[in-house]
């Protein structure tokens, strides 16, 4: 019996509304699944060879993936117990890893996929997933190219709902491999040129002979000896009739340093990351107070589009009951105030009768006897 067959009996009949959620409309003609309208198409491997892209990717994916996800009731905003798929979506890896690669897909491709591995028997909603790399997924669309009609993973057709189907996370943009193809390609070529220049620190040039003309064999032998001496880093000897004239500019003369810095700034804009996060020579003089402000700015500028894409998708009715919603615990973790500020605020709330001591202890993750 095939792996999927063991679960098929659990899946109830899915109505068309839910099926439409599994198969979202195409947002543009080039949305994720098609070649971007640029002269050069870049892939993730090329992009990740650039330190600025690596830094941006790790900052965005690593930060969001480290923030817990919780389930809340819409009517009261009460925090509920988290289902197993919210604590650990994939049985084969920690939640943080699954989320990091989901955000990675949204960042680079503008779309991410989870495949449904298990469903709950009572309502047929997903109970376990696995992350699927976007490169493994292909689609067919309707004649007008507006809606996905079928998904394929590794070239094999998958169900459009229930077990084995794909949950699609749609990004709020088309992904930097689409929107930033030209910038990434330019940065890659400049880095490659700078690397090649570093491999040959001795500049290329020509040997000028002001004496009698040499035969072809003599010229070939002279150039071979000169090349051999350069490769060994040895000192070469020139006669009074020979003169070496460099013809290659230094990396500084070529402007590689300025080009790389400029393109790093462009990549920061591409990823909505403040440029100083990617600059190695930036003066770091942050205090605790402005670190909090910087974190708020980082969330609003760079992280919020990915946070929103994941929260809203996991809160849709085909995954979460329509009475509940999923949210990252940003305020309780990433933006949490220092201890004295929290205690001052809690003290005021207790004095005003807004919360009880027990509720205050719960806010500070303390048990009733005051211990953690």
Main beta sheet: 3 strands, antiparallel
The 3D shape can be described as elongated
Query: Structural class of the helix and strand makeup?
Result: alpha+beta
Question: Can you tell me the number of structural domains?
Answer: 3
Q: Approximately what portion of the residues adopt beta-strand conformation?
A: 15-25%
How many beta-strand segments? 11
- Rg to the nearest angstrom? 29 Å
- Portion of residues within helices: 40-55%
Question: Helical element count?
Answer: 14
End-to-end separation in angstroms reads 48 Å
- How are the strands ordered across the major sheet? 2-1-11
**N to C succession of SSEs:** HHHHEEHHEEEEEEHHEHEHHHEHH
Mean pLDDT: 77
Low-confidence stretches: 1-21, 27-38
Quick recap:
By secondary structure, this protein is an alpha+beta fold. It contains 14 helices and 11 strands.
Question: Care to describe what's here?
Answer:
By secondary structure, this protein is α+β, with helices and mostly antiparallel strands. It folds into three domains: 1-200 and 249-336, no CATH class; 202-247; 338-372, no CATH class. The chain is 42% helix and 15% strand. It has helices spanning 5-8, 16-22, 44-47, 51-65, 84-87, 95-109, 176-179, 181-199, 216-232, 251-254, 256-270, 288-314, 339-351, 357-363; strands at 69-73, 79-80, 111-119, 126-132, 137-141, 148-153, 156-157, 166-170, 205-209, 242-246, 324-328. The chain has a three-stranded antiparallel beta sheet with strand order 2-1-11. Strands 4-3-8 form a three-stranded antiparallel beta sheet. Strands 5-6-7 form a three-stranded antiparallel beta sheet, with no helix packed on it.
């Amino acid at each position: 019996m095939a792996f999927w067959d063991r679960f098929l009996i659990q899946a109830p009949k899915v109505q068309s509304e839910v099926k439409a959620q599994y198969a979202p409309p195409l947002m543009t003609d080039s949305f994720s699944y098609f070649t971007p309208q640029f002269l050069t198409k870049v892939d993730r491997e090329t992009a990740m060879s650039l330190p600025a892209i690596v830094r941006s990717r790790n900052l965005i994916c690593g930060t969001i993936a480290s923030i817990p996800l919780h389930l809340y009731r819409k009517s009261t905003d009460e925090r509920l117990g988290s289902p197993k798929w919210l604590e650990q979506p994939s049985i084969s890896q920690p939640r943080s890893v699954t989320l990091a690669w989901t955000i990675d897909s949204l960042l680079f491709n503008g779309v991410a996929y989870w495949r449904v591995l298990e469903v709950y028997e009572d309502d047929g909603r997903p109970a376990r997933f696995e992350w699927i790399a976007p490169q493994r997924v292909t689609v067919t669309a309707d004649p007008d190219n507006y809606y996905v009609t079928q998904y394929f993973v590794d070239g094999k057709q998958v169900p459009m709902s229930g077990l084995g189907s794909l949950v699609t996370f749609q990004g709020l943009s088309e992904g930097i491999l689409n929107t930033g193809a030209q910038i990434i390609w330019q940065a890659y070529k400049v880095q490659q040129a700078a690397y090649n220049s570093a491999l040959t620190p001795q500049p290329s040039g020509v040997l000028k002979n002001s004496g009698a003309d040499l035969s072809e064999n003599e010229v070939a032998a002279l150039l071979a000896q000169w090349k051999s001496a350069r490769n060994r880093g040895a000192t070469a000897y020139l006669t009074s009739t020979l003169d070496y004239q460099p013809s290659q500019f230094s990396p500084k003369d070529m402007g590689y340093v300025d080009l790389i810095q400029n393109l790093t700034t462009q990549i920061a804009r591409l990823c909505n990351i403040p440029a100083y996060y990617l600059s190695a020579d930036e003066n770091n003089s942050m205090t605790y107070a402005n670190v909090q402000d910087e974190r708020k700015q980082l969330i609003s500028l760079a992280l919020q589009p990915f946070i929103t894409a994941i929260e809203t998708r996991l809160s849709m009715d085909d995954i979460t009951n329509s009475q509940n919603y999923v949210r990252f615990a940003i305020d309780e973790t990433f933006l949490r105030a220092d201890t004295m500020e929290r205690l001052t605020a809690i003290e005021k709330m207790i004095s005003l009768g807004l919360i009880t001591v027990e509720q205050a202890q719960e806010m500070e993750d303390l048990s009733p006897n005051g211990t953690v």
